[in-house]
Amino acid sequence: MTRNTISLMFVLLLVSGVVWAQVTTGTISGTVSDETGGVLPGVEVIVTNIDTGVERAVVTGDEGRYNAPSLSLGAYEVSAGLAGFQTGVRSGITLNVGAEAVIDIRLSIGSISERVVVEGEAPLVESTSSTITNLVDDKKIRDLPLNGRSFTQLAALQAGVAVPRHFENVQPGNEGDKLSIGGTRITQTAFLMDGTDIRNHFGTTPGSVAGVLLGVDTVREFSVVTTGASAEYGIFTGGVINAVSRSGTNELHGSIFEFHRNSALDARNFFDRDPNNPLERSKPPHFIRNQFGFTVGGPIVEDRTFIFGSYEGLRDRLTITRTARVPTENGRNGNFPNGTFNFLTRSFTTQIPVSPDALPFFEAYPLPNDQIFPDDETGFFVFGDAVPTNEDFFMVKIDHNFTDNHSFFVRYTMDDSEKNPFLYSGIGPTG
Q1: How many other CB atoms are found less than 10 A from the CB of residue 54?
Q2: Per-residue model confidence as pLDDT tens digits over 356-405
Q3: Which one, out of 61, 215, 404, 418, has a CA that is 20 to 30 A from the CA of 41?
Q4: Residue 193's closest CA among 177, 211, 209, 215?
Q5: pTM of the model
Q6: Beta pairing class for 180-181 and 190-193
Q7: Distance CA 35, CA 203 (A)
Q8: Which of 317, 291, 300 is nearest to 148 (CA)?
Q9: Residue 239 CB: number of other CB atoms within 10 A?
Q10: Are 215 and 275 in contact (CB under 8 A)?
Q11: For the chain, how big is the Rg over CA atoms in Å?
């Protein structure tokens, strides 16, 4: 590999990072002026991430404006200093995914060593874009209950988002949450994680064969773009679910969790029956689900390199009541009614010879344990179909800051799941 090839690959990597950063980061911009409202060029503005200690330094232009793009998400402080003026500081700024916060600073005459601190959030009205976006922050993600712990369920709480009840391609690996945003088709909805498309090969959902999208504890926040998505989101014509994964900070933090659910308080489905006594309909079938795991994050090198990792396991044991039509004893023996009295057998049935080669197939089916049809050839066999589901999710992310203006992150995600294939095969009981 030549040096030029290596250089080209490095440039492409940097370009790709810039493209991703447009939808996974935020921007802080504004104007610096004096007490009379006159703009101040040449002012050094320092934007500091409170969580990681990383600083970004920019200088105001001729019109007193500054711009700090591609900032990682989190809490920020902005300070502006110029000789002959007191240092102005704006704190309490929270930068969310895709946000373009406008922070204007007014400097007063005085010593640059004096600091005037103004606390307050960035304006809630987005004045730099016409895109309509709803934010689901980390507090909502952690506090709101989620059946199955799929964070995409929270997108359905936003205006303009609907969950279709009927859709095609209900196949293994395509059972996750399907969302229609702004009346568009479900295949036109984008699911992005750190700017990367995470939909499955059906192009409808990022869910696994378990029907969930694990890793809610690895998501810092996500936005739902419902109207006016800009060209930076690429080929999608519908809405956009734009999520950003969590990163480590200067503080070591972690969690351990376990969620348990069973059928103790479940109501019986109308068709549920006791497999050992199908005529009884007194209790729901067996069901138990456990979701467990941990998260841990912290610094590798303070103010420079950070790591965050998580594991989540799902163990689901669901029993579904199923009914199969199977041959009766008469059906196995070839006794079929024909409406004509047979003087030899003294019955209204006809004996049809059964090939010995067919007997193993008949024996593979159990005898009916429920309703027998009038022809006495077939009947219903009611049974409980146990559907075990196992899933393991793992994620690790490393962030590194080369300089105040150059950063890099790498994330590895693994999601391994398996589910009983007989749930989809339509195959009846085999004995």
Answers
A1: 21
A2: 888 888 888 888 888 888 777 788 888 877 788 999 999 999 999 998 77
A3: 404
A4: 215
A5: 0.74
A6: unpaired
A7: 55
A8: 291
A9: 28
A10: no
A11: 31
